[in-house]
Amino acid sequence: MKPIPFKEQTNVAAETQDEYGDLPFLDMKGKTGTIVSCWGLSEEEIAEVVKTGKIWVGLMCFGNPLTPSLLTVNKTDLFETTTIPCTSCGINDVEGIVNMVEDNLVNEKECKDCDSVK
Questions:
Q1: Cβ distance 106 to 31 under 8 Å?
Q2: CA dihedral sign of residues 37, 40, 46, 48
Q3: Cβ distance 52 to 17 under 8 Å?
Q4: Chain centroid offset of residue 59 CA
Q5: How far is CA 61 from CA 21, 68, 71, 78, in A?
Q6: Least CB-packed of 1, 66, 86, 109 within 10 Å?
Q7: How far apart (Å, rounded) are the C-alpha atoms in residues 98 and 69?
Q8: How much is the pLDDT for 22?
Q9: Are 81 and 8 contacting, i.e. CB atoms less than 8 angstroms apart?
Q10: Cα–Cα–Cα angle for 57, 19, 37, rounded to 5 degrees
Q11: What is the pLDDT of residues 55-98, one digit of tens each?
């Protein structure tokens, strides 16, 4: 199992840390500090999940308290992509991401006509 790039990602962590490997993620920018990543399974891992129905999770807390975690097979449990009017020109639609955990807008893409970045 390894982290894989996905359309909505906003950054990549640990790009220069070989001991961890790249971690593409979406920063939800909410009060909970939720970070979302997507993980791909090999054919062997898929077969093992089908056989056992289990996925084991290890979290590195570095001596800090454990924080709540959510594993899901549906990204819409975490966020949804939506279309909203550009807040600069009010005419063109731009893509936004809604944080489903906190129910708030995370970000918008740039409106190509008015050159605004939200």
A1: no
A2: negative
A3: no
A4: 17
A5: 17, 12, 17, 22
A6: 66
A7: 19
A8: 92
A9: yes
A10: 45
A11: 999 988 899 999 888 899 988 888 877 777 776 776 667 666 77
Q: For tokens 């454990």, name the residue.
A: 66
Whole-model pTM: value is 0.73
- CA–CA distances in Å: residue 59 to residues 26, 54, 67, 68: 18, 16, 9, 11
Closest to 32 in 3D by CA, of 78, 81, 84, 80: 78
Q: Which of 16-25, 26-35, 91-100 has the highest mean pLDDT?
A: 16-25
Report d(CA 80, CA 68) in Å as an integer: 21
What is the C-alpha to C-alpha distance for residues 56 and 98, in angstroms, rounded to an integer?
Answer: 28
Q: In 3D, which of 10, 52, 46 has the Cα closest to residue 28? A: 10
Q: Which residues pair with 98 in a beta bridge?
A: 80, 105
